[in-house]
Every structure is written in structure tokens, then in C-alpha cells.
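Supplementary Methods S3. Input chains for the assembly prediction are listed below.
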Amino acid sequence: MPGFNHLYIPGPTNVPDQVRMAMNVSMQDMRAPDFPAFTKPLFEKVAKVFRNTTGRVFLYPSSGTGAWEAAIQNTLSPGDKVLMSRFGQFSHLWADMAMRLGLDVELIDCDWGTGVPVEQYAERLNADVAHEIQAVFVTHNETATGVTSNVKAVREALDAAKHPALLMVDGVSAVGSIPFDQDAWRVDCAVSGSQKGFMLPAGLGMLSVSKWALDANKRAGYARTFFSFEDMIANNNNGYFPYTPATQLLHGLNTSVDMMLDEGLENIWARHHRLATGVRKAVAAWGLDLCAQEEKWYSDTVSAILVPEGFDARDVISTAYSKYNTSLGSGLSKVAGKVFRIGHLGWLNEGMVCTALSVAEMALIDTGIKIEAGSGVGAAITHFSQTAADATPKRAAA
Amino acid sequence: MPGFNHLYIPGPTNVPDQVRMAMNVSMQDMRAPDFPAFTKPLFEKVAKVFRNTTGRVFLYPSSGTGAWEAAIQNTLSPGDKVLMSRFGQFSHLWADMAMRLGLDVELIDCDWGTGVPVEQYAERLNADVAHEIQAVFVTHNETATGVTSNVKAVREALDAAKHPALLMVDGVSAVGSIPFDQDAWRVDCAVSGSQKGFMLPAGLGMLSVSKWALDANKRAGYARTFFSFEDMIANNNNGYFPYTPATQLLHGLNTSVDMMLDEGLENIWARHHRLATGVRKAVAAWGLDLCAQEEKWYSDTVSAILVPEGFDARDVISTAYSKYNTSLGSGLSKVAGKVFRIGHLGWLNEGMVCTALSVAEMALIDTGIKIEAGSGVGAAITHFSQTAADATPKRAAA
Amino acid sequence: MPGFNHLYIPGPTNVPDQVRMAMNVSMQDMRAPDFPAFTKPLFEKVAKVFRNTTGRVFLYPSSGTGAWEAAIQNTLSPGDKVLMSRFGQFSHLWADMAMRLGLDVELIDCDWGTGVPVEQYAERLNADVAHEIQAVFVTHNETATGVTSNVKAVREALDAAKHPALLMVDGVSAVGSIPFDQDAWRVDCAVSGSQKGFMLPAGLGMLSVSKWALDANKRAGYARTFFSFEDMIANNNNGYFPYTPATQLLHGLNTSVDMMLDEGLENIWARHHRLATGVRKAVAAWGLDLCAQEEKWYSDTVSAILVPEGFDARDVISTAYSKYNTSLGSGLSKVAGKVFRIGHLGWLNEGMVCTALSVAEMALIDTGIKIEAGSGVGAAITHFSQTAADATPKRAAA
Amino acid sequence: MPGFNHLYIPGPTNVPDQVRMAMNVSMQDMRAPDFPAFTKPLFEKVAKVFRNTTGRVFLYPSSGTGAWEAAIQNTLSPGDKVLMSRFGQFSHLWADMAMRLGLDVELIDCDWGTGVPVEQYAERLNADVAHEIQAVFVTHNETATGVTSNVKAVREALDAAKHPALLMVDGVSAVGSIPFDQDAWRVDCAVSGSQKGFMLPAGLGMLSVSKWALDANKRAGYARTFFSFEDMIANNNNGYFPYTPATQLLHGLNTSVDMMLDEGLENIWARHHRLATGVRKAVAAWGLDLCAQEEKWYSDTVSAILVPEGFDARDVISTAYSKYNTSLGSGLSKVAGKVFRIGHLGWLNEGMVCTALSVAEMALIDTGIKIEAGSGVGAAITHFSQTAADATPKRAAA
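Predicted C-alpha cells for the full assembly:
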């Protein structure tokens, strides 16, 4: 189909030109003497994006799912009791993994459209005087429903209960896009992947761990090799890897974290909030509802939008794709057919949001859903115009 | 600035991924024995895009300006009388070149916002019973004002007058985007460049000539070497070039003409018309006027939009650029400050048009021009939704 | 340093331009309706490279190490007795993994420079009348020592003993380069990675399994999620993946397997044998020895070359790298300092081999090792000249 | 054919990865307000490569041939008397152009294999007391025969004669590779192209002019537009161009001149001399002769090698190409069939030279020319080993 494919799924996200250029490389020797001069600063920069100063970062050639598994295998033991909650496809999948890996999962099922039930977590933690719970799991941003949970509040609940459990956070669609502070919140294992806020192709699983997680690693009872911290640490300490790393992606990552630190994390977070607000104003203008049930759950990286009763959101998505060359996110599992999703994270600006909203309008109209053409985009335009920085200095054409 | 730069100037246009991939090549020997197996079919495919079966196509490492000069040097002689008209910056520049190269230019100045004055051309041709006029020049699409002229009517005027003058057409922002038929209209020299409908970076000047132009070449009195047809023909006939060709761009061109012929020229023209109509509906919804004075002049590749009295269009353009990372076309020369331009040609679809319109709305609002947010995009959305093909088969992910 | 880096390690190998171009892509939706039209033929083509018609192929975003783990987790159970042998760093690492994952490893230690001890394997299999051995492991090509083992003979030993154990083969530096026939040898799990014969960047772990391995999967007792066959199969059957696949690499893989099947596997094997023979003739001309102790062990993908007593092979390697911008393979573990390695696999031709040999000569001379300048390259040149195909038809410049 | 194509023609040369990455860009607005922040430093850096501080540099979307024409059109007038010499295909072509453009060419024909006849030039200049000669032309490096002329000596002859003629130098295969000093030698027009020492694809013609050339421009009588200094100056002074520039190549150029200035011009020259010496030692070891008749003519960027009587050099070249995927330079015009050429300029190191020499040996042997296999490469290896810098600090993997 003519024209660019417009990619507004919540990952993979759009890759900046600079990153794409950085990946257009010849291969190199991953055992070369100057390889550490490339990797060691890279590890440090990635840790800065997580705001992790106590521990370290692992970069696996894998996916976010792999990093989930790495977190469990390296800090827990089969049979360990853990506290989890489920309110969407990705929190479901992590819980499913935990159970399949033999953890004793205390699973709190919540409405899809809500997030981590901090009060219930607090209750359980307070009740667990024997400290049987070894880890508490949080899906920071549930990509399936567009819900952001309060990681900080979970940390506060742990601290209030003086509970030593590890805090495990799925930050795949959060880190590098919305506020995340591993140190301040003492997140022990923060999972992410390359294809979201890091603006890279899929292929890297990232795991940023605190020093407490590194301590736990020594007691962890899982058999492990590919994801083993020990092997990684022994090699990473010298700037190398226990097996051939995905150097092409590492070069892309090097550029993307430079760009992120150059823009500034707070600026990135503010940008995501402003752009996401535009999307939400559009949804309101259309007269539609978000899957996220309350404002406190609103995600600044993805919006899951409910279609009215009697319509199938899959028609919106397939129309956008087949008629307008635009990829919107589909509803997964329980919300299949009920929601379509707009990913608004990563390398994003006003014009890109308006593209997504415009195509969504066309697809909604074509599907027979009554909205006023231009209403949503117009609402976003008004918001963006009112909130634009007065003078955005342009960088020189690079 | 974060997010993609949105490029909606009337050239360079957006380069398709496939073309970009094709240009990511190592260098090669332009005298290799298998080089002609690449170039000969390429010449044929480019000629197809021009609909030229009587003559041949020249590919210069240059620009459209270079191809203008090539056309003059190779078919005319200093002092030759030629008929030209001026109604925008690019028709001005070609006339300026003709005068500086020593042609005896009979220049008809027209209102900017109109196009080639066919009736006046007809008059002069009819009056020129001695056939002193050696060539008639037509700027098919005046990129500065968004005006398309009627090449076919000029051919008819020539034929009605039984006048043997050559028909020289500047098709830089026309060929490959709007209807162009070199054979049917017997265009003798059709000039184009790589960075418009051909969807490539700038760097190639294209000149497609009829057999009558090749005949004229034998009599042409200009000294010439770099742009010489003779040198090109002697080498191109064997699949080679008289000097090192820009092989990287030729590889891109090979891919882009394949894409164009694959989509089909009529389909491309229809797509441009449909998308341009969306832009014009947006302009109307804003309550603004085009620089093109009548519908018959409307260009399907670029719209020059007048800002109301009391405003400076440069503010709209600089706002779009500095606040919204979007490149709109500026007003040139006489219309500087009066118009901003939206390029809508090349690798384009509905979502891309809506991007340009959305940013234009933000920039207009920020500049203080009263428009209703969403009105223009909404009008385009309605148009696109009403006119979308029912089932656009997707090509497999490539 | 000026000039290209010459990469002659046994992986990552040199990436063809065509593959590099294919990876220069924008991101795409891995849940799009036309994604299976891309992935399903891809799975089939990869299976053809393995010559696997009974089972299927898994493509993990990981590394060869990950595929090793996937093979074990999905077909065996903790405590299972397996037969392995160790004669180099990579056979060591796989055995180490097996032990750490809790298998009961019967490990035969062999001289480094030899390969899988087929006779001893046969003995153990014949002796194992109770069929306690669940799997037999073979490192097809030990990359550390440049030794190729006889997979077919192990299959014959299994068959002769009428032993039902699974045959697990590490084909990381073998598949796609030297003769490999999963069907004929009934290999149950064939492990490979993207960065060797597949001529891609690192980042994909490949596992090609027979139908017997798929049967074993149903009984396999390991907890697994990331590498789980079940999750992969459920999704791959529809052309999708259980988590975000590395689409950039999949596009590269699509191109590289097309190139491989286009060249023809037998032709690729013959090419590797001819080029490797040139390397071995050079080594002989230098008066040096291979680590591989007998001709039957010679690897056609990598040569590990012993330096004379009193010299440190690391000096050769660091000289090649720091003075001549060339990456040679280092000696690992037991053979560190004793060998340097030349990788000669993947996208390779005569000129590339001569590059590696020329630089090796400079580095040897600089290190003080007495060789005659030009002797090795000359021997290779003579071999290549004598064995070159008479008429290699060139493909058209693409 | 498998493996990299080995490109050892004297241009296009091999493009560094960094440059290739820099050209993998989206298009941009060449009238954007921040475009000058990119172009103005670029002009300055290019001028540094020419060592031009008195005048300025013009960057045309064209080729070296275009820059030849630009030099003539902008500084001379039809009928002007000029002094030229011819001793190879490229000095021939420039003279041919000068004559076709109507200059009164006093042409000294020299043996192919020699260079500019400085003594004869001096004679004519001394004899020209009326200063009728308006310009003296020098082909600095005759690419067809591998001959470098003495530009400095020509300047000295001009000065000794107190002759005001302009000094026009074709530096296409010289600038950026061998010593060139526009200021010191007061070269008035120095022509170059992107695809040689600048390590870029073809597509840019470069013309670096002195202030005396800029003065001459005011008197120049040629009609001109595309190559007009005036139009360029008016726009370049503000950082823009009179027509759409080839921004993709400009980005590549920006990177390549950074790399050149970073390596240091003297270091680049020394590197070329050292590598070229290796080639010449190989030629001597083969028992063959260069086309360049004396050492003083030896070119450090290209060697034209004579094949023995009774052989056709075209067989060597076609064998290298069709059997070994290697591009060697062919003999042009008078020396067709008599020489094959090895280009050794640009992004080059020892291993690359050895590649070219090794393939040349195979092709010579296959053609039936008696040389000892390994003799030439061995001689080069010995030279490189003896002259290698002790410690070449590696830059970090970038």
C-alpha cells in the first residue's frame, strides 16, 4: 500500500532515524580488546534510564518475556510464595509464567481496567508476619488495558509492613516513557524490552536489578544458564558477554539511550503525559470510554478505547490496517473485540498522535460508529496548541 | 526534536522504505560487464513512467535545474526564439535560465495563481507563420503556487497552428504524480527530477525526449559536454555512462519505478487526486483560499494556501517547524509571506495528509489565524472515508 | 583505523549486503493479518536449510546458547541420564549447562583436537540395554578447536544399538556451511544461531526438531515458558509468536535463507570445503599445525592454528587487530595462547580467504614466528586457481 | 556470487560504514531555518581538505566531469587561449571538453605513462609575453595510466614566468589521497568528485576555487546557469543552494570529511604512499611493469600494470570479475588490453591491498601469465610488516 505504514501499537514503537542509522553496521568481534570501551559505558547509561545506582543491568538477547523469566530464575526458588495481581493480558501472562515455573502464586484477580490493588497488597503483607511472601509483583503498565499502577505505593506498603519481600516490576511499556525510579522506589527487579520506550526493534530483554536482588541471587534455587546472572556478571564485569551478544541492537541501544538522556527523562515523561492527554481528549470528544476505569489508572503510553456495544473493535483495527495502512493495537484475550488500542509511546510528537487519531476517526466512521469527523483530532489539536512550549530550539540537521 | 520530522514540502518527498533499503548498497564498478543488465531495463522502465515510446530518457547526476539546461543546450541554439510564460518562481527561473543562455525569449507574464495562457500561446503560434518560434515552454506544475497547466491544450494549439516548434515541459513536480503522457501530447523534452514523484533523494535530473527532440539535437548549436546527448547516447546505448553515474540513486530509482509501475500510473494519479481533494476540502473548511485562482488550475501535488491579510505565512511555517517538527513549503519570491504550501505528492496516503493538515491547524491557531480546530482535518477525514476503496488488498510484509 | 575491519572469527560472520539491506526496515505490527504470509514460508525455508521434513523449526530471540537450553528443557527432564563428550570450549559449555540444569551427564573427556568418540558412544549405547540414556549429545563442529565430528556415525551407532535415545546436535557453526542432513541422520534437536552460516547478526537462536523430539516434548519435565515449545507451537501454527519476535532479524533471515537455497546447499558445502582447503594449504606452507589432530577432524568452517612453542598466539591476534584492523579468533580456555583461529564460513570467497591469510602472515612475522612471506597466501592462490569453476555466471548487478 | 565484491577500481572507492550509516537518512527540507547550521561548517571542512583559505568550495549535484565544466564556464570565455597536455584518457577528455566548449587549446601530446611536461609548459609561458594564455591545465593524477604530475612545479613555472594565467587542476583522483595544497600551490580551480578520496558514492562534483578564480569569474564570458558561481554564491552565503541539493550525499560528505580531518591529511597521504609502495613491490615481484614510465610519475592512488606482450589485460580483468568477484580497473582507450589497474585509494588498509593483489595473482595465473603464486602478495606483506606503525591505537567500537 502506498505511503508509510503508521505504527501506533504499544510496541514495537517507531525507531528514530538516528537509531536506525546506528544499526546499519557491519559485524564485529565481541571478544575484541576495545569491545569493553563500548559496552561498559553502555551498561551505565542504561542503568541511568532505570535510575538504578545500587545494582546493575542485564541485557539479554531475548524479549521482555525472557527478562520476566530471568528475574524469577535468578532471585527466587521453586515453591516460593509470591504475591501477584492480574488485570490484563500481560499481568496474566506473568502470573501464568510464575505458576508454570513452580512458584506458589497468591494471585489477586482484579477488574480489567483497574491496576495493582495496593490496599489488598498492603493487607496481605501486613498479615504475612512470618514473611513467607518472597516477592511482590507489579505490572507497572498493563499494555492490554492501558492501565498504569502505582509502584511507589506498593513500595510504601512493603515499607509500612516492614516486609523484606522483593519488589518485581514489569516495566516493559513503562521504563523510558513514564516516571520510573528504581532507586527511589527500591524496585528489585525491573523488567523491560527494547521495542517500547527504548525505541529499538524487538530483540533485547532488559533486566535492571537492585543490590538486594543481587543478594537474593545467591540464594536463588532455580537451575539456570542462559539467563544466569552469575555468567552474565562474570563476563559483563570485563565488558564481555557469556555468549555472542546482539551487537547490532547494542549499537542501536547506545544511540537510543544517548538520545533519551539528552532529552532528559523528566522531559520525556512530560512529553508522554502531554501527548497522552491529547489522545484522551480525543476519546472524550468522540464520546467513547477508555478501558481504564478511573483517571488514576490512565496510562500515558497506551490507551485502550472501548467501542460501543454492538460493534466489534476488530473491525476498527482491520479497517485502519487494510484501508489506511495503519496499525492500531488489538484487544487481547478478555477484551478482544471490545477495545482498540493506540500506542503513544517512544519516538512520538504531536503530528504523530494526530495521524493516529485521524486514522482512528476514519476507521470508526467506516465501521459505523457515530463520531463527528475531526472532533477527536480537533480536541487534541486544541490541547497541543495550548500546551506547546513557546520556543522549542531545533537541533541542527544531523 | 522528538518524533519523526513530518515532511510535507513539494519535494524532496518522503522516501519509501523499499527505496531506502535499495540505496543502502556498497559501491560497484560502473564499467562491469553485467552493469548494462541493470541499466538497460532501468532506462526502459523510466521511459514507461514518462509514457515515452518514440525517444529516450537521460539520467543526469544533477537536479531538475540541470535537466532544464540539458533540454535547452541539446535541442536549441543561442538566439533561437522561444515562447514562454511566467506565473510563479519556477516558471520564472526557467525563463531566466533561457534568457541567460541567450535564447530570444518571448515571455508572457501571467498572474501568479494562473498557469500557461493557452489562448495567448495559440495566438502567437498562429501569428508565427514564418515558424520563427523554435520551442514552446510549459511549466506543467508550478510548484510555487500550486498551479497545474494544460499541456495537452498547448499541444493542440501547436497542432492547430501546424507549428513545428518543440514542446518543452517542466514536469518536475508532475511526472509520476499527475496525468502525464509524453507520447499522446508529443512532449519533446520532459524534464523531471528524482526528489518528487519518483520518491528518491535529490541528485538525479531526468530528461525524457521524443524522437523529434533527438532530431533537433543534431542541429542544436550550443556548446555542451556534461549534458551532451551525444556522449550520453554513445554510452547509454551500451548500458554505460560517459562519466561515473550515481549508482546508489540508480538502485533507488530502479526500485521506485518498479513500485510505480506496480501500483499503476492511473492508480497513482487517482490517489494523488483523491488526497489533494482532501487537502482542498480542509482549506475550504478553514475558510482560507488557495493561491490557484480557479479550479482548473488546482494542482494535485501541492497546494499553496493564502493566509488572511494581516498575517505572515512565514509565521505559520516557522511555527510548524520549530514547535511541531513539521516542514511545510514556504512562499517563494512574490508570494513570500502570503502563502504556505503543503506538498502532497509521492509516497503518500490518508494518514500522512491528515498529519500535515493537523499540524497546519496547530500552526495556524498558534499564529492567531482563526480557524476551528479539527475542521480541516475533519473535512479531509470525511472525504477520505467516503471515497476509500472497499477492499485494499495488503501486500505481504516484505 | 582506516579501511574495513576484516572479520575472520568463526562468527559473527560477514553479513551480505542484501541481508543488511533487508534489515534496514521500519518496525511493523507482529499481530497484523498479513504477518503470517511472511512468517509461514520463512519457517518452511529455514527447515529446508536444516533438511528437516518431519518436525519443525523454532526461532527464538536469543542465541545459540539459548537454543541449547531450549532443546534440553523441552525434550528432557531433570535427572535424565545423557551421554556427552567434551573436547573444546563449546562442547564443555553445553555439558556444563546440562549439569547445571540437573541432567545426569555421562561425560567423556577427549583430547582437544579430536571430536565425538563414536566408538565409545557405541559401547555405552550397546551396554545401556535398559535404555537409561535419554539423549546423546554431539557438538557437530567444535568452534574452539576447528574439529568436525561425525554426526552420521553417531546416528548409525544409535541405530546399531537399537537405542531410542534422542540425538541432540549443536550445529551452531555447522548448519548452512558444511553437510548437515537432519532427516537422513535423524537428528532430533539441531541447534543453530543466526550469526554463523546464516550470515546474520547475532540475536536469533534456532532449534530444528524432529517429530520424535516433538513427541518427547510431551513427556519433558522441565518447567519452561520463554523457550517453551508449546507456546511457540500454539502461536507459530498461525504464523505468530508468543511474544514480540525480532522482526528485523526475521527479515534478514528471510533474505539469507533465500540466498542459501538459491546458491544450493551442496554448492555452499563445496564452496566451504574448497576455501577451507586453501586455508589448510596455507597453514602447511607456513610449516604450522592445526589443532585438529587428524584430517578426519578438519573443520571446513574454522581452522585453529597452533603457534610454535615459545610463542603466544594472543600476540598474533592482538597484532592482527591493532596493526592491521583484522579480527582473528582467539584461543579459548585450554588452548588460550596456543592457537589463533581463522573463521572461514558464511559469506565468503577466495579474495576474503586471502585477506585473512595475508594479515595472518603479517601478524605471524611481526610476532617473530618464522614463516616465508607470501608462502601461505601463495599456496591458497594456487589451490584456488587450480580449482576455480571455469565459468561462474555473474548475477546481474542487483 | 558468494562473498563480498572486492572493489579495487580507482573510483568509486569503498564507502566506510560510518559514511554509509550517515547516508541512511530520511529526506529533509533544504530551506529549513537550521539547514545552514549543517551546511556552513560543511563548506569549511571541505575547504580544509583542499587546503583552500583564500576562496571557496562549490558542491554540485553532478560528477567530476561537471566540475570540469563548471571551472571552465565560470572563469574563462569562449575563444580564450589555454595550455593543456594529454597523456591519458582523463587528460584527453578534459582537453576534448575545452575544445568543444570553444577554448583555443594549445595541446601538448605526451607519451601515455608520463605526465604534465613542466619544462614545455615553462617554455610556452615564458614565450607568452603578451599573456595570451588565460589558463594552464594540469591533470594532477591521470587515473588511466597511474601517473601523478607535479602541480607545484607548474605553479613555480608560472611564477618564474610571472604569468598571470589561472592554474586549473583536475584533482579528482588526487585530493584527499595524495599531497595537495591549494593555497601553497595557488591552484585556482581544483576539481574533485565524491567517489574517490572522499569515499562517497558518485553524485557530487566538487570545485574548490581561489580568490583569483573568483575574480576571474566576474569577467568570464560563458553563458551558465546550472554551474553558475553567482547563483551558488548568492545562496551558499546563507547556507542554502540555488536548487535542491543532494542532501543524502551532503550528510555522507559531512561524515567523510570529519573522518579525513580526524585522521589528518598528512597521515592519509602517508598511508596511501605506504600502501601504494606495497602494490609496486608486488608488481616488481611479478616481473611486470607499470604503465608509469619513471618513478617520478608513480601514482599513490592507482597503479596501471602492463601485461606482457601476447596477453590481453582484459582477460585478467574479466577473470577477476567473473571467477573471483573482484573489480579491477580496465585499460581505457589507447591502453585498452595493455593494462589492468588496481585502485588503491580512499578507505584502504593493508588487508585490502593484499586482497586486490591476491586476486590479481589468481587472475594473472588463470590468464596464463607466468608469475609465482604468492610472490606479489608476499612482497607487499614484507613491506607492510616492515613499515607498520608500532602501536596503532584502536578507536573504541563505535
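The domain at 18-263 of chain B is CATH 3.40.640.10 (Aspartate Aminotransferase; domain 2). Residues 55 and 211 of chain B are 4 Å apart (CA to CA).
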